[in-house]
User: Fold these one by one.
Assistant:
Number 1:
Amino acid sequence: MTSVKVCCMQYVIAEGRLLGGRIGGHAVGAGRKCAAMTAAPASVTIDLLIKSDGGGILLSIRRQATTAMFALTASSLLIAGCGTAKPAAQAAQKPVTIGTSLSLSGDFSGDGKSIEAGYKLWVDQVNKHGGLLGRKVKLVVLNDDSSTQQSLTNYSTLIGTDHVDLVFGPFSSPLTIPAEQIAKRYGYLLPDPAGGAPSVFAENYDGYAYAKPASVPHNLLGLGNLLMSLPASERPKTVAYATSNDPFTEPQLPPLRKELEAAGMRTLYYQVFPDETPDLQPEALAIAQTHADAVVLGTTSVPQVQAFVQAFAQQHYNPKVIVATSGPDQGSAFSSALGVANTEGFLVPIAWTPTANSYQNKQFIQAYIAKYGGTAASIPADAPDAYCVGQLVQELVTKTHSLKNADLIKALHANTFQTVEGPMSFQMDGAPAGTHMFLVQWQNGSTKIVWPKDSQQASLEYPKPAWH
Amino acid sequence: MSLVLGSVVLGILSGGIYALMAVGLTLSFGVLEVVNIAQGMFVIAAAYLSYALQRYWHIDPLLGLVITIPVMFLLGLVVEWSFIRRLKQDRVMLSILVSWAVALILEGVVGLIFADDFRSIHSWYVTATVPVFGLYVPDIYLIGFALAVVLMGLVYLLVYRSRFGAALRAMVQNREAAALLGIDVQRISTLTFAIATGLTAAGGMLFGAIQAFNADSNLDLISRLLIIVILGGMGSMGGALVASVGLLVAVNIIAVTWTPNWSTFFFFGITILVLVFRPQGFFGAPAARKV
């Protein structure tokens, strides 16, 4: 399928035939003549976008064309499009198409596949209950190979070429920013499961929604409260921090550091490392030599956590408390990488737990296990994150009785939404209005909520046992 | 032991392991004028082999080298026969493209078999350590360094102390003249490429033991191996060892005394400087194609 865009005019062509398009923001159905075509500008830009299915190739050709060329091209397109109109009834029955770009390969593929599982599960559930406004939902997933450029390309294709009805967000902030820019350009709502970095909100797009109960800088604050709840004589006295320069992890540490230092816990080490660093031995060695009581790791993946743990174990360094921003939330992927014994005592902030008494959580877990197998404890955190995105859109559509992105965006900021991760509402820049996050600890091979107190399932295991 | 001294020790040991992974690359270029971009993927494929032997047949990764080295050697024979020997002209440039294609094919195959999940090789010597003046030196790094010294020593003996090596060196000096003297140039080329690939079995096992990996890991790895070989001088085995150890020590010192951000910058920054001011690498033009 090829998209031809002529200034504000855009056509979708398949096998050389015009299927439809937009001129000046108005849809042009196949076979319809449009007066705008006669108002040809003196010079126009023609973009040819050859569709890419993820790891493929995007061929973009941009040329300035003369009025004559424009007229010729436009006329050809209209002529080619004649006779391809679909009956209105058929159009009404067509499914609601939701497009998304996910990291099904590359560095974020573990998370990307879990997000895909959550999205697909929601599609199954919503279709089982009649779809959106009586229309079935169809999910179109393109692979971005964990590449920001491919994310940009994919959302351009989904919105600009394929004209999907709605879009869902990708995994992680670096890939969300280009997606947000495209959504903003076309006025699409972008509900997102994993783009919580401040840089995402800096785009100030009111159509963006980070579908989490709290924004990223709040993630670790529960740890500060938890440690302060310990008797003063038992609290950690010293802390070491190391974080990846990833926009999701890096903003989480400074608020916690500020809080812990205010409570008298000295910082012995604070370093930022490049996310792509393959060898974390020097950083781990430096932390080990501080003998800090507590370690805070701003990690983005299981391998990063594993690299630190392996080095700590080699150096016989056993902190009393260890928390990581990401990795321990990956369920069985985490425990199989570290070995169950070494997961004991690990803390991680999460928005969802299988035991939370939140909206439709039980149904979600049952449906997930029925579709993918495993147990509630093995559900990766990304899956409910993605499911929330679907729930949010479903509630928006139900409330507005509309599939128009402008209507959904308007309603986004006027309501609170119930999800498996609890109630959510959003500020104008897309940041969650709430601050609620769980802090869970690995105990005996599964995670237990240790903070906040009102949701606590187990006491904090403190100090954590030595590595095996 | 001080933090800096500890970093130096770990830098030397991990430098040896990286040199072992890079030696096949420098051997291929030195003898065959082939820039083997698939070297990183060969290392990852070998890591998967060691992982599979341990996971499914409970064969210790070190003992498994008895199996993985011949398997990788055979893979080298197949790749050389299928792709490399077909390159008759402009071998340096064409080999980059061809070996890149080989890497992509291998990456796809490995991805199909093992999916994208990160794997790691576990054994008692991965976490076991030897205390040295307050620093715990991981056994896996000591084993890796020893393995690197032994295997690179064997390659050295093969190249400089055997009839095969004499023929190989004659071929490096003048391929046509060597053929006229009765040396089977094609056979030497094939065996050299297979040996270079076989060596990745050890490098892969070590790589998989010191860090988690998946098929995509080859991209970062090949960039590091190329930097090591470029700094050492393309084709210089000793240069690869010196460059690898020097780089890893410098990177570790910068990481612990300054910031990890600058250590990565240094790794790539020094490469740019060398390419601008001494493109033949530290070991210079005369050594550029010596093995």
Number 2:
Amino acid sequence: MVEPAVDLTHGHAHDDHAHHGPQGWLKYLWSTDHKVIAMQYMFTGMFMALVGGFMAYVFRMQLAFPDISVPGWGGVVSMGEYNSLVTNHGTIMIFWVAMPVLLAAFGNYLIPLMVGADDMVFPKINRLSFQVFFVSTIVILASLFVEGGGFAGAWTAYPPLSADATYNLTPLGSTLWVIGVGLEFVAFLLGGINFITTLMNSRAPGMRAFDVPLVVWMIVVASILFMLSVGPLLAGAIMLVFDQTIGTGFYNPATGGDPILWQHLFWFFGHPEVYVVLLPAMGVVIEIITTFARKKVFGYRIVIFTVVATGVLSFFVWAHHQFIAGIDPRMANIFTITTLLISVPIAELCFVYIATLYGGSIRLTTPMLWALAFVAEFLIGGVTGIFLGAAGADIYFHDTYFVLAHFHYTFFPIAIIGTYAAFTYWFPKMFGKMMDDRLGKWHFWLTIIPFNMIFIPLFVLGMGGQHRRISNYSSFSELAGDGFQSVRIFATISLLIMLAAQLIFFYNCWKSWRSGPKAPKNPWKANSLEWTTESPPPHGNWRPDRMPVVYRGPYEYSVPDREEDYWPQNEPDGAPLQVVDPDAGEQGR
Amino acid sequence: MAARATIIPFRPRPEKKQLISDGVLGMLVFVFVEIMLFAGFISAFVIIKSRAVGSVWPPVNQPRLPVESTAINTLALIASGVVLLIAHRAHLRARRSGEDGAVRRGPGPASPRGLGGLPGDSTGRLLVAATLLGGTFVVLQGVEWLALIREGLTITSSTYGALFYTIIGAHAVHAVAAIAALGWATMRLGAGLLTREALSTVAIFWYFVVLVWPFLYVVVYL
């Protein structure tokens, strides 16, 4: 009889958790705090970025200097190893770096803080989400070391190559690959349920739908896209595992199956997936641009409607990945049109960003540089995509380095530039210390310039018709000619410079964390709610009796007649404005 | 210039309210994912069926599916869904009369005791009936599977068999999980701890399992 009484009186007091929860490092393993889970996602993602970056280093070395012993790899890269490296580089960078860092880490960190909640709606499901993700990480890393090596059938895993071990020669690696990716989807599914429910149900009092910061809107729309698209791929993955392990013939034409079926199921997920990772990056960038231009977002509602329209359209473009897979040419026409249409809302978002910058008082801090670089570099990725979206041009470009350079010009701005922008912008909030701006700028320039030096040459290679799945061009004298080999060497050396520059970032993080100046609550003088609490925020985010109340949208910068050029969302309307408000009579008090 | 400042509307401090409770909303999102999962399976079925050799489906050398006995089984599943719907409504009614009556006092949450044991509350019996009907469905499906395997329809005998066992098996896994959830709800009710939100969350999952079945039956069996 005593127990219920205790429960009633305790209510929602967050401070109590510390006393009877697990202690020490177990506290981090079993924590349900959204900030701890965000950090777990972020550091796992960063570790996987190192793994994926190392893979890129090894196969770029093989491409530039064929059949030399690659330092750090311990020998010559065999053809099978090359295939395994490119496959797992793609898989890891998309599913274990872009998604966990941008969507899961920043989604987990920002959503409760930005909507003024003490935590996610389902903290235990959130914890389960990371634990499943962690298991999936172990599975994909283990798959690299089993007999036969890691899966080597390209990250799109087209059957029959992926379904039959006699073709791909990686019987265990390919099965572990599918299982790892499947577990990873389950993890994000659990996380996405939390994101959507938290935005719907846990907003601070006063926060209406159109008072929510755009990054939260975009992360939640991205989660909805993920939810709607992942089901068919899970169905396809279950069938692929059955094909691999128990010998069903879903994708085997000899037994009445259909290999193109996988391509449809994969790309029905795969194309919305591009927007699943793009939208959080776009959201991060607009937050940073508006803060450092000290200007209201140009067309807040238009941005939201545009994002929703992009999401809807993204479900009708998937077959543009299959123009040469033998689909009906009439279908190719339709998908060319939808593909070109989807560039309209994305271009609109870029114009919104430029319009937000226009006339602002711009401060070129490190996060702002990353945000501006995102817009510029993503533009190149978007414009080159138009050539690939047109079915006629795609027949020539398909599977060349042009495709590869195109999607690196979209994914690098998303996964790397967007992440650095977000990381440097919210670092003071996450770790309570200011980052070194000078080192940050060195890191920025030494990343951006080599990035362009890697991938602009690859556009040239692609236009020259160079196929992207060849490990050693010196075996094909007609492909190795025309000075293309020197272009490959140039790109590889640029990659080495870029990878080395990342050391500056890690040094900057370590140094700032150890001995950086202490961050105030609101170092950038921004409006949204996460800047109204301590840096770093305590467990429960705000003191239970001081949960924020929202009075306005998040982008009231440079409001005339105010002393300060920002106006936090939780600040009650001051006396000077209240008096002259013409609507006051109508709204009443 | 002073007039421009007035564009920002004055807003009195509003109240916080929820349209849909957390558990129900989370479950609805999850059910959306599940619908897309089964849509993926159904599209795979339709595409592979359309590519069948000589458009003969099911393949000539494969056993037929038990259409009639599964129809009866379908009725058991739908009956279970209807009984759960009645149980759900009974629970809501009992809670409401409980809240209006003496159970709820003060600002704290309603006292846990007394939710299940109110006079005239049939929720418990109905929940047990729904769970048993659902269990009947799963057991009868298992019996049919055994018969089909004896007749020579296995997961590797043809794409027909592979699709059948994968799709119907996926549904069976969901049904077992949902029955476990119903059992959990029944136990919570017995302990007097079953909240309105928890029952709604569990019920929505069971409604999904029940409602997706007729589609699978029509596509796969007929």
